[in-house]
């Protein structure tokens, strides 16, 4: 059976490869066990987006939180919002201060999965919920798609038992810090 990667791993891996391993270990537990306050706030903010009332005649034109899959890339996951008529895909984050490369990988993968499933998408945006800012990015071209595929391959072949570079600055902002055997640092939300 083929194994598909979760699209969120594309970003998590850039942050810290070991966080994917911990995510898998704690996946079956209640997220309240390890979610930090910002993640919980972000989730509540996402829920308020998910439950946003759209006028009936517009409902079919906006898809929120649907699952997408790309056989070509070997990934699956949820999108935030697709404005079908405007052909606009939006990925929301609680607060965006920097557009990390992992964010791009996530949105590129969502875009490619949607187009593979037959949707038309002409515009890609990130939305920072806290300060209500939009960030438009380019549609990925051949070079970006190759970069994305290489990133996916790197994750698929990664040896999670190998030594990893522990970055205390990242650990401080990692939701798994209190459970992680690679560090004794508590995250700043404890
Ligand atoms: S606590 Fe640090 S080493 Fe552990 S998963 Fe998080 S970022 Fe990686």
SS strand fraction: 15-25%
Radius of gyration: 17 Å
Strand count, sense and barrel status of the largest sheet are:
5 strands, mixed
Strand order of the largest sheet: 2-5-6-7-8
Shape: globular
In the predicted model, the low-confidence regions spanning at least 5 consecutive residues are: 30-36, 48-57
Find the count of extended strands (DSSP E, 2+ residues): 8
Number of helices: 7
| CATH level 1 class label | Alpha Beta
Q: Please name the CATH architecture.
A: Alpha-Beta Complex
Number of domains: 1
Average pLDDT, rounded to a whole number, is 85
Question: Can you tell me about this structure?
Answer:
The protein has 190 residues and is an alpha/beta fold. It has one domain (5-51, 60-179): Lambda Exonuclease, Chain A (Alpha-Beta Complex). A hairpin with a 4-residue loop joins strand 5 (81-83) and strand 6 (88-93). It contains 7 helices and 8 strands. Residues 30-36 and 48-57 have low confidence and may be disordered. Helix 1 (7-15) crosses helix 2 and helix 1 runs antiparallel to helix 5. 39% of the residues lie in helices and 17% in strands. The protein starts with a strand and ends in an 18-residue tail after the last helix. The strands form 2 sheets. The chain has a 5-stranded mixed β-sheet with strand order 2-5-6-7-8. A 3-stranded mixed β-sheet has the order 1-4-3. It is globular. Iron/sulfur cluster is lined by residues 16, 18-19, 22, 166, 170-171, 174, 176-177, 180, 182-183. The site of iron/sulfur cluster has 13 residues, from helix 2 and helix 7.
């Amino acid at each position: 059976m083929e194994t598909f990667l979760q699209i969120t791993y594309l970003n998590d891996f850039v942050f810290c490869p070991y966080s994917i391993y911990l995510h898998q270990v704690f996946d079956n537990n209640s997220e309240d066990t390890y979610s930090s306050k910002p993640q919980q706030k972000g989730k509540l903010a996402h829920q308020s987006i998910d439950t946003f009332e759209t006028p009936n005649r517009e409902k079919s034109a906006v898809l929120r939180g649907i699952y997408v899959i790309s056989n070509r890339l070997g990934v699956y996951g949820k999108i935030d919002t697709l404005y079908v008529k405007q052909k606009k895909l939006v990925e929301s984050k609680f607060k965006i201060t920097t557009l990390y490369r992992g964010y791009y990988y996530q949105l590129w993968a969502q875009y490619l999965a949607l187009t593979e499933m037959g949707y038309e998408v002409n515009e890609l945006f990130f939305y920072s919920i806290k300060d209500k800012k939009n960030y438009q990015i380019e549609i990925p071209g051949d070079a970006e798609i190759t970069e994305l595929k290489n990133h996916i391959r790197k994750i698929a072949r990664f040896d999670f038992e190998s030594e990893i570079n522990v970055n205390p600055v990242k650990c401080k902002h990692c939701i798994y810090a209190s459970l992680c055997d690679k560090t004794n640092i508590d995250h700043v939300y404890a």
